[in-house]
Amino acid sequence: MRATLMYGAGDVRVETVPNPTLQEPTDAIVRIVAGCICGSDLWPYASRPESAEGSRMGHEFVGIVEELGSEVTGLAVGDFVIAPFVASDGACDFCKEGLQTSCRHGAHWGGHDDGGQGEFARVPQASGTLVVVPAGFDEKLIPSLLSLSDVMSTGYHAAKKASIKPGQTVTVIGDGAVGLSAVLSAKLMGASRIILMVRHEARTDLGREFGATDVVSERGEEGIAKVRELTKGDGTHVVLEAVGLKPAIEMAIGAVRDGGVISRVGAPQFTEVPLGFPEFMRNITLTGGVAPARAYIEELLPLVLNGTIEPGKVFDRTIRNGPDPDEAREERFAMVIPEA
User: How many whole angstroms separate alpha carbon 231 and alpha carbon 105?
Assistant: First the structure.
């Protein structure tokens, strides 16, 4: 089969690799219908050291179950499924608490194992990992179903961890797929005012469609000043940070209201958070973290199926792969997330 591998910064290749096989009785083999590039893929793309051995890429996908191990329950061959970006058994104490990213028997995609940017993938702990989409859904919803595997669930995680209350004001830092999903999530939770700090003007319209009431293009101290100007000097009750760079968390600290909450879900590319005595005196809460997407998919799936939300609009490009010159195969396609 064909799959994507990264050999170093800027060096991504589509190569032929062995088809996956069942290795454990809890495995499933899924034929990937749609996969996507995540914002977190941008960091190794920019900085990964060169290697003679490529790493399999992709950790979010949807597809059709092709084969099941003998101990898999709750799934059938032919089911259309959503694969969250972390595998989990669904049975350990962390999974039962809704923290599948800390599953005691979990697994990650890619590296030397199958990734989501390929034609097939072996899914470990399939019963606890995969979510079945009810049969008969409109295939036009595939982009939105794909978004639940990571970006929409991550944006929703930011809003949930911030415990947004109806009527509160929210700032979203980051206009990539996760940031736009965070806007949509803040709207779902009843925020009365949502300020989107955008870097790319092309995403302004979608941000407003998802619920942003104000757009701020300035950065740094100018951006903080603009948010405070819009909120009569106070800042917003909540700031959702979906970038992962230190300047973004610094803006979040400057834009949040005293007693407010900063929820960060951008994969952090720094180790120290500037929360010293002045911030201590403001009673700021810092929360967030990696999103347990598996905990949210079943909550968000009905909203996609009934048309309440259409998070798949965050994908701005579709890449279709035609027949391989060496073997006939069904056409696949991949969704590409906008740059962070």
Answer: 46
